[in-house]
Amino acid sequence: MTDNNPMMLTTRETGNDWRVLPAFLPLPGMGGLTINAFLHKGREPLLVDTGLAALGDAFLDALEAEIDLRDLRWIWLSHTDADHIGNLVRILQRAPQARVVTNFLGMGKMGLLGLDTSRVHLLEPGARLSLGDRELVPLRPPYYDAPETLGFLDTRSRTLFAADSFGALLPEPAENVAEIEAQTLRDGLVTWSSIDAPWLAMADRDALGRSLHALERLAPTTVLSGHLPVAEGNLSMLTALVHEAWCLAPATEADPQMLEAVAEALDDSLATRLQA
Ligand SMILES: [Fe+2]
Ligand SMILES: [Fe+2]
User: Fold this and answer.
1) Which domains are assigned to the chain?
2) 43: number of Cβ within 10 Å
3) How far is the CA of 275 from the centre of ligand 2 (A)?
4) pLDDT per residue over 124-164, tens digit each?
5) Is the pTM of this model over 0.85?
6) How many angstroms is it from 164 CA to the middle of ligand 2?
7) d(Cα 98, Cα 92) in Å, to the nearest integer?
């Protein structure tokens, strides 16, 4: 890598009938972060997330090499963070049939961002999205950075989309989780999860463990994360990393901004002042 600009990588097929539109965002001193969108070219074509605005032309070129956007029917919005909705407006302009799949909070945030909500397909709690030959079952991933986050399980291919869960900082782009050295993956996943979801340090460990176990019961064949190379059949390895990091022991050093730490520090300074 010669600079710190994000770059589109080569579009790839997964083991299932989903394609990955990957990008890599260098983060100085920390390696970089994978930023994926996904495309399903079935009976009712669906795009998951819309990439970085900074990569607009390159992202659209990669997408339009795969599909005539006039055929696109759905855009599944995992959440409204900038790295997931960067090219939403441009894609909607070129995809007149496409509707944006999100929930009540997602639609509200779109409105606050000045985005057109007239083409939203609102997913009510418990509702599924039918693509004709399969359903996408919405789910809340085990951890996330925005409360509107929607992952899904594709009932036909058993592909799991985990939104921001299982994201990892990596020293360089990779095509598949299997090619990442175990310790590199562990460190990158723990570091990124502590940055992106710092509430994990305060989470109920038993509840998080039950959530990870429930995810395993879904038995996905492929795990798609917004911020990790594709994981084929590696779910239990990923859940084990999260379990070890956040259910068995605190993953990181004490966060000085956690309220307990702040209160303790101020208690100390107050006691010092009283003694003076
Ligand atoms: Fe996010
Ligand atoms: Fe993200």
Assistant:
1) 7-275 (3.60.15.10)
2) 11
3) 48
4) 999 999 999 999 999 999 999 999 999 999 999 999 999 99
5) yes
6) 5
7) 7
